[in-house]
Model the fold of this input.
Amino acid sequence: MGIFDYFKSKSEPSSASVAKDRLQIIVAHERSRRTQPDYLEQMQQEIIAVIRKYVQIESDDVQIQLENTDDCSVLELNVTIPEKS
Amino acid sequence: MAKIIVVTSGKGGVGKTTSSAAIGTGLAMKGHKTVLIDFDVGLRNLDLIMGCERRVVYDFVNVINKEATLSQALIKDKRTKDLYILPASQTRDKDALTPEGVEEVLNELSKDFEYIVCDSPAGIERGAQMALYFADVAIVTTNPEVSSVRDSDRILGILQSKSRRAEQGLSPIEEHLLVTRYNPERVSEGEMLSVADVEEILAIPLLGVIPESEAVLKASNQGTPVILDTQAVAGQAYADAVERLLGEQRPLRFTDVQKKGFFKRLLGG
Done:
């Protein structure tokens, strides 16, 4: 860092911290996908298609998660239906 | 029983072969009988890095296909005692490595050697899967850069689900992080992920940090593993990593910015 660098704007986050934030998000996303069975993705697509017959939703509005406990698995489905405008 | 170590990364060009050569040589220098196996079928390079490319007669695939015996294919390193190299084949048949064949060769080597270091190819195809499948220990080689970190995480997922230890419900593969091509100056400028950042994202214990060093290219030009360059920071950092792999405690070195003179700092550069 030389004397001229002090004139540069300091408000921008460093590129390394941007890299870290992006990585944390994508890695968490890919890890959650890794533990779920392969059919889950397709099931999610089909559920979205069924809901879309009635309400217009985005793909992001359906969250699907499979949680395994000792003796059973719980499939959690969260659908956010947009408010009527 | 030998300990099987895989040097892996997912992404190419991060320093797997350089690290395999350095760590394998380091283990042999500490008196442990070690064999280095190149799993990169079709693109063998460990022989060049180890400087034995002109001594290759038979290779890994010849041994699997019983066209040669192990003792015919193993190349004894000329510089380091207790070190052998099993080169990869240059065949284009990507299915040349069969799980049964690889297992048989590893079992045979296990009788004679203390450490088997498997140099994995890049990617997640057959060769990479075979290199990690039988491993007891994984050294995940990562550059402080987004695509390398992401691919390393992917490889960690494969180690935890598709390895022999995972499939047979044995104790999991011991995972180690090796950060290579580290540039402390760029980290301090906020232009490069720090070791702490990479450790936090991948959440596995740190084996070592190898600084970006001109000595690495020089060593590969000459066909000598960089760990033999005891003057170079990269060589010393690999020696530290080997000590840690053997259970010794070593403080991290070469991860802080070298102090510059007043004028150099004032003018930058």
